[in-house]
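Note to self: keep these together.
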Amino acid sequence: MKNTFILLFGISSCFAFSQVGIGTNNPRTTLDVAGDLNLRRELRVGGTTSVNGNAGIAGQVLVSSGNSAVPTWKSVNTPFASAGDYQLVNTKVLFDRTGINFATNANNTPPASYISTLGENISTNGWVQIPGLQTNILVEQEGNTLSLIFQTGVESNSGGSAITDNRLVKYMCGIFQNDLLVAFRGDELLDVHRKDANNEGVFTLSYSVDDLPIANHVFKVACRRILTTAGTYEFAIGRPIASSTISNAFMLQSVIKIELLEPVR
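Structure:
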């Protein structure tokens, strides 16, 4: 009889205070566990006195909905990473339709430099910045990798169909980190003689930069015209030339995608 009395007293205490403590004499919530919890089956949330709660599906995680609100199960699209793996922490995609119009020129003089070198400043060697392709990337961990993909359209016209020789323009585009060149490549656009139309091409630059210092870095894209053959020559990057009747800014727009991957510690 004594044992029965103690058990009933304990149950009535639970109902009176509506709080149960395991490993503590001062529970702060309805169920307060001061220690490890071994859960042998599913965890259900949002149930009522007549309906079971939601146990979620395989691979979902439980996400808080805030104070006094029922948490919800969410699907995680990004795979979980382990120590030694890399995870994507920042992605930037920028578009530009302003481009660079090098206008009409009759330049067949060799440039000061046909090639560029890593580390040269954006203010030297005739570089012209594409205005809409500038962004900041915050690096917070060492051992990182930055992936860069830049693509743009180019267009030229060397004077119509009356010419009898093939003419071309040599150009270069590069990516600058804090105004210093970190990636570049050159190309050329050939005007075919007796082709009574403009000439278009696609320029692509893909590169990666490893182990950037921890800091906020500014990235820019710039291009330069290196050399054109004899004759009057129109040339534009990331936009149509002024006299174009077969292209527009959408067709030749520039885009850059920057992805920062940092190691999982």
